[in-house]
């Protein structure tokens, strides 16, 4: 699977892809798109803008996805009209954004985003010295309006730079995007290293689209990633939170995870989990993969998924090592687990700004793991009434599926939920004194020399 994703082809056209100034025009009949497939609101906006004398096209994800037979998430319009000119044409239009103005045109709950053509500054010596990163972590080069050609060149991947005119039903292709769609390849427009340096998040977008579309990443596009991966540390944590959700809630999280690890992009996103992956590879890999496979399945089935459960799973394997380090400094086991959880989340939030509405349930899911083994008296029934019980129980099953030894605790809880009251009382009685242990994540058995490494680390 991975091999297939990273297969590479020789570029179809000799010479730099990004210098193309006249587009390849693909007429209706030479491609599979039809106007009727697109949102009628978006098509209406394009017609209206063209009638007012502006250039206007459907662009980006919606053209790419329709060519691949995928239902687009949203429909974006690109135009030569400025935001003010767009607003003047539509009563239901609102300008949003300060630095990069966009127009949102509202049709009830449906919103169509209209963006004015933008350009990259030409890169001069002076630019490269004075360019700075804005609040989203991008280099400030694409904040000026431009021509259609320039708008195509500043986009990230060739497959995202296709413009569809629903009036003439023609596609304009400035970057050989149609070729790359046919060959199922993710290819950056322009020089890959430079494009990643401008905006390191493009490395994550390459992985996201490869996983979502089941495409390979073209050789030159994949080549610089491992070397540049650490640039993700410069990206604001709020933007990385958004990107991480897109990566793991796309319905293709399991393969996305494999690619992130392989391309060394997982480390800058989840440093502690990445350490756990080295320290305890089989367990960590199994637990995270299993959580992501479950997430993908739930999305396929249209069931809700909570980012809290996802982050709880991504971080859980990093807990034992931390708790152990605190213990080796003299902290008793239970406070050590609590403190480790607190530190781990605080550190993770430096990289990825997980909002409080998710960090609180992460802690609750973890705390539940310490409580699930204690079932005597009324405790089991109290736990069942806890609003986090379901997530806590699912998390226990996840830990077991990754090989954690819990002495059949998951099965016990499965049975308990199925029982009537008197059967439940019997189950509690049968427990006798067996419900004491099992606090927090267990330290897995480790080989002697790994143990030594962990102890050394704790002594530092
Ligand atoms: P989807 O919405 O299905 O995830 P999309 O291609 O529509 O995919 P968006 O993030 O909505 O992706 O961006 C819309 C378009 O804007 C892209 O198709 C691409 O042309 C351009 N774009 C987005 N982010 C970047 C970026 N970081 N660098 C360059 N171009 C970008
Ligand atoms: Mg989109």
From TrEMBL:
GO terms for molecular function: nucleotidyltransferase activity. Keywords: ATP-binding, mRNA processing, Nucleotide-binding, Nucleotidyltransferase, RNA-binding, Transcription, Transferase. InterPro entries: NT_sf, PolA_pol_head_dom, PolA_pol_I, PolyA_pol_arg_C_dom, PolyA_RNA-bd, tRNA_ntf/polyA_polymerase_I. Residues 330-450 form the Polymerase A arginine-rich C-terminal domain. It catalyses: RNA(n) + ATP = RNA(n)-3'-adenine ribonucleotide + diphosphate. Pfam families: PolyA_pol, PolyA_pol_arg_C, PolyA_pol_RNAbd. Adds poly(A) tail to the 3' end of many RNAs, which usually targets these RNAs for decay. Plays a significant role in the global control of gene expression, through influencing the rate of transcript degradation, and in the general RNA quality control. Belongs to the tRNA nucleotidyltransferase/poly(A) polymerase family. This is Poly(A) polymerase I. It comes from Pseudomonas fontis. The gene is pcnB.
């Amino acid at each position: 699977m991975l091999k297939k994703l990273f297969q590479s082809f020789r570029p179809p056209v000799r010479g730099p892809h990004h210098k193309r100034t006249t587009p390849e025009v693909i007429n209706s009949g030479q491609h599979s798109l039809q106007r009727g497939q697109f949102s009628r609101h978006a098509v209406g906006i394009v017609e209206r803008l063209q009638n007012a004398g502006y250039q206007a096209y459907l662009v980006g994800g919606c053209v790419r996805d329709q060519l691949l037979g995928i239902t687009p998430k949203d429909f974006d319009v690109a135009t030569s009209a400025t935001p003010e000119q767009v607003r003047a044409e539509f009563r239901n239009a609102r300008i949003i954004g300060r630095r990069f103005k966009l127009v949102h045109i509202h049709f009830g709950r449906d919103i169509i985003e209209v963006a004015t053509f933008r350009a990259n500054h030409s890169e001069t010596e002076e630019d490269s010295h004075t360019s700075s990163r804005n609040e989203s972590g991008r280099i400030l080069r694409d904040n000026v309006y431009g021509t259609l050609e320039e708008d195509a060149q500043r986009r990230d991947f060739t497959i995202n730079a296709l413009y569809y005119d629903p009036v003439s039903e023609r596609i304009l292709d400035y970057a050989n995007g149609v070729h790359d769609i046919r060959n199922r390849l993710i290819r950056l427009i322009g020089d890959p290293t430079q494009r990643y340096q401008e905006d390191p998040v493009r490395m994550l977008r390459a992985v996201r689209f490869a996983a979502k579309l089941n495409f390979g990443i073209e050789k030159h596009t994949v080549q610089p990633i491992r070397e540049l991966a650490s640039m993700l540390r410069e990206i604001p944590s709020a933007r990385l939170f958004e990107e991480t959700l897109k990566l793991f809630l796309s319905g293709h999280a399991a393969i996305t995870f494999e690619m992130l690890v392989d391309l060394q992009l997982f480390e800058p996103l989840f440093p502690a989990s990445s350490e756990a992956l080295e320290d305890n590879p089989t367990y960590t890999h199994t637990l995270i993969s299993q959580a992501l496979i479950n997430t993908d399945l739930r999305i396929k089935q249209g069931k809700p998924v909570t980012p809290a459960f996802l982050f709880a799973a991504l971080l859980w394997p990093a807990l034992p090592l931390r708790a152990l380090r605190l213990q080796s400094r003299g902290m008793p086991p239970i406070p050590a687990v609590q403190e480790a959880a607190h530190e781990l989340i605080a550190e993770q939030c430096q990289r990825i700004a997980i909002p409080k509405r998710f960090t609180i349930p992460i802690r609750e899911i973890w705390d539940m793991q310490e409580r699930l083994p204690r079932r005597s008296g009324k405790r089991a029934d109290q736990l069942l009434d806890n609003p986090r019980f379901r997530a806590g129980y699912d998390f226990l099953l996840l830990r077991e599926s990754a090989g954690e030894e819990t002495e059949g605790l998951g099965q016990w809880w499965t049975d308990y939920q199925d029982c009537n009251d008197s059967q439940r009382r019997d189950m509690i009685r049968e427990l006798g004194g067996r419900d004491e242990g099992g606090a927090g994540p267990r330290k897995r058995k480790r080989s002697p020399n790994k143990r030594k490494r962990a102890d050394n680390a704790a002594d530092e």
